[in-house]
Amino acid sequence: QQPVQSPQAVILREGEDAVINCSSSKALYSVHWYRQKHGEAPIFLMILLKGGEQKGHDKISASFNEKKQQSSLYLTASQLSYSGTYFCGTEGQGTALIFGKGTTLSVSS
Amino acid sequence: GAVVSQHPSWVICKSGTSVKIECRSLDFQATTMFWYRQFPKQSLMLMATSNEGSKATYEQGVEKDKFLINHASLTLSTLTVTSAHPEDSSFYICSVGKQGYSNQPQHFGDGTRLSIL
């Protein structure tokens, strides 16, 4: 079942923060986060595997609340390069990923 | 370097033509590859799971006779869109993940933009 992402779109100025949420109606064993620029392939950001896990890279981090079947992606002090569509992916059959509808982030100077 | 190579990058052809898209795993042998389709401003929708040496597993609503998948080797899967029509125009993208390792990222090809006139 497709995970639900919110919000659908975010507009920021450079330096501002954003939070993107991903939730599922079923128990999650892992959550994958990707960013896609227009016309390009999705780029892997991070995977969260355990309840309570938090990960971060540079100024992008994520948390995984397993009990709530939810994950959040945090973008701090956003840069122009952060613009794109962010997808969370949860596991379907086997290791295939089922993606949410995406959150479009627009960062302007 | 690239982990997955997808070819061609874009195709423009007439209605009724069949189009073949190749997906190659460059970094490791892949018994499983995945095919996704993405319409403009929409999410990546899983079409099918390609299994080396056996039949592909199609998602509900995807016509297996229209979207033929062949996974003849551990590094190559092909998707053939048969008798393509304008409604098949989309961005097709494959991905590869290490079999049995759900805690590993999926590596995506660069995608194929298909336009049917």
Measured distance between first and last alpha carbons of chain A: 37 Å
Cα end-to-end separation of chain B:
34 Å
Sheet with most strands of chain A: 6 strands, mixed
Which regions of chain B are unreliable across 5 or more consecutive residues at pLDDT < 50?
A: none
Q: Roughly how much helix do the residues of chain A carry, as a percent range?
A: under 10%
Global Rg of chain B: 13 Å
Largest interface: A-B, 25 and 27 residues
Shape, per Cα inertia axes of chain B: globular
Percentage of residues assigned to helices of chain B = under 10%
Radius of gyration of chain A: 13 Å
Order of helices and strands of chain B: EEEEEEEEEEE
Counting H and I runs of at least 4 residues, what is the number of helices of chain B? 0
DSSP strand tally of chain A: 11
The structural class of chain A is: mainly beta
pLDDT < 50 stretches of chain A: none
* Assembly category: heterodimer
Average pLDDT over all residues of chain A: 89
* SSE series of chain A: EEEEEEEEEEE
**Tell me, what's the shape of chain A?**
globular
What do the pLDDT scores of chain B average to? 91
Defining traits:
heterodimer; A: 109 residues; mainly beta; six-stranded mixed beta sheet; five-stranded antiparallel beta sheet; globular; B: 117 residues; four-stranded antiparallel beta sheet; 11 strands; 0% helix
Topology:
The complex is a heterodimer of chains A (109) and B (117).
Chain A: E1 4-6, E2 9-13, E3 18-23, E4 31-36, E5 43-48, E6 54-57, E7 60-65, E8 70-75, E9 84-91, E10 97-99, E11 103-108
Parallel strand pairs in A: 2-11
Antiparallel strand pairs in A: 1-3, 3-8, 4-5, 4-9, 6-7, 7-8, 9-10, 9-11
Chain B: E1 4-7, E2 10-13, E3 19-25, E4 32-38, E5 45-51, E6 57-58, E7 67-73, E8 76-81, E9 90-96, E10 107-108, E11 112-116
Parallel strand pairs in B: 2-11
Antiparallel strand pairs in B: 1-3, 3-8, 4-5, 4-9, 5-6, 7-8, 9-10, 9-11
Please tell me about this protein's structure.
- The complex is a heterodimer of chains A (109) and B (117).
- Chain A has strands at residues 4-6, 9-13, 18-23, 31-36, 43-48, 54-57, 60-65, 70-75, 84-91, 97-99, 103-108.
- Chain A has 109 residues and is mainly beta.
- In chain A, the strands form 2 sheets. In chain A, strands 2, 4, 5, 9, 10 and 11 form a 6-stranded mixed sheet that branches. In chain A, strands 1-3-8-7-6 form a 5-stranded antiparallel sheet, with no helix packed on it.
- Chain B has no helices and 11 strands.
- Chain B has strands at 4-7, 10-13, 19-25, 32-38, 45-51, 57-58, 67-73, 76-81, 90-96, 107-108, 112-116.
- Chain B is globular.
- The chains are: A mainly beta (109), B mainly beta (117).
- The interface between A and B is medium-sized, with 25 and 27 residues.
